[in-house]
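FORM 12-B: Structure-to-Sequence Request
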């Protein structure tokens, strides 16, 4: 959305008055100026102004005081303010991502800044961890652990050190996803036979079966309005994406192109489905307009998985594989901009999930 202008050779003061003709001549539409000052108590003060070059006026400005360890958090907050002022949409710079990192035989559930620059371990285990999922308020993570030699779904409140068991039924307990109101989750259980979808309250009570098929139903995800649950099923012979009313009802098939489409995710505005499609042996991130059913392949790598929308719906986070090692990457919703995150320079990274807007 933005093109940066070279500021070389220019001394820019933190002032509402600038050499407007210079910046206009360089093609700038907006200008951000600021200062950081060390205070006597060890804190720092940052002042910034967002200026409209065309109208030659100030759009916004703020002074913030912070401790040095909060510098990145403060910078993300400033970036969010600038982004929202210029685009009218909330910025996602202050959001967090979660993912699983494997180093040797150790697994870590990592919570990180959205740019992959501040990884913190929320859980460390000698057993596999999969399928992290953020609660809508960003205070809890659901995930699957094999610590008890079988897949069990846990919920970890981020402000408490200990998780609690959400689902530990006979067989497999997997693929948790939160409802938009955070009161319940859709999960995949095998307690009655094949993998099927169930609803369960966030405290582990009220388990109710949602699907009944002769195939495998898994990877549920709620639509943003909570009315539908999209999921992967091979009930038609090959893995495709279907949807079912969240309270139960008739199942409808959603994807029709290709013979392998899995891992559905719905954009925050409910208009776009992202998923992994197999094309000529390559697994690639694909999007489908739910109104027109038109599809577009966004990536050109061979082993992409686990798409996750940013809260503004403009970017998709996903895991890929380079040199036999899992890495994180992002792609814009139109496929034009792709970036690799610098997180997990040593480990093998999988299963990313983008958290909600910061509150």
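FORM 12-B RESPONSE
SEQUENCE OUT:
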């Amino acid at each position: 959305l933005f093109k940066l202008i070279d500021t070389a050779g220019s001394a820019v003061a933190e002032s509402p008055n600038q050499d407007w003709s210079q910046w206009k001549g360089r093609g700038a539409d907006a200008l951000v100026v600021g200062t950081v000052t060390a205070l006597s108590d060890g804190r720092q003060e940052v002042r910034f102004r967002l200026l409209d070059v065309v109208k030659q006026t100030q759009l916004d400005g703020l002074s913030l005081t912070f401790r040095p360890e909060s510098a990145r958090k403060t910078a993300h907050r400033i970036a969010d303010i600038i982004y929202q002022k210029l685009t009218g949409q909330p910025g996602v710079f202050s959001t967090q991502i979660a993912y699983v990192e494997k180093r040797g035989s150790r697994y870590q559930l990592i919570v990180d800044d959205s740019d992959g620059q501040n990884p913190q371990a929320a859980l460390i285990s000698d057993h596999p961890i999969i399928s992290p999922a953020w609660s809508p308020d960003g205070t809890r993570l659901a995930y699957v652990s094999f610590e008890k030699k079988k897949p069990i779904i846990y919920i970890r409140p981020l402000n408490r050190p200990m998780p609690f068991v959400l689902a530990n039924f006979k067989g497999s307990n997997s693929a948790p996803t939160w409802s938009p109101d955070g009161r319940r989750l859709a999960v995949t259980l095998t307690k009655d036979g094949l993998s099927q979808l169930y609803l369960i309250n966030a405290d582990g009570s009220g388990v109710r079966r949602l699907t009944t098929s002769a195939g495998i139903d898994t990877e549920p995800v709620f639509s943003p309005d909570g009315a539908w649950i999209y999921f992967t099923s091979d009930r038609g012979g090959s893995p495709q994406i279907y949807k079912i009313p969240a309270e139960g009802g008739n199942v409808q098939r959603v994807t029709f192109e290709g013979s392998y489409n899995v891992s559905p995710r719905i954009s925050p505005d409910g208009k776009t489905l992202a998923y992994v499609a197999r094309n000529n042996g390559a697994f690639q991130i694909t999007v489908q307009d739910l109104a027109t059913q038109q599809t577009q392949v966004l990536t050109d790598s061979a082993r992409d998985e686990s798409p996750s929308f940013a809260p503004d719906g403009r970017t998709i986070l996903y895991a890929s594989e380079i040199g036999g090692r899992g890495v994180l990457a992002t792609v814009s919703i139109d496929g034009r901009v792709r970036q690799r995150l610098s997180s997990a320079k040593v480990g093998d990274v999988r299963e990313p999930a983008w958290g909600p807007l910061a509150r």
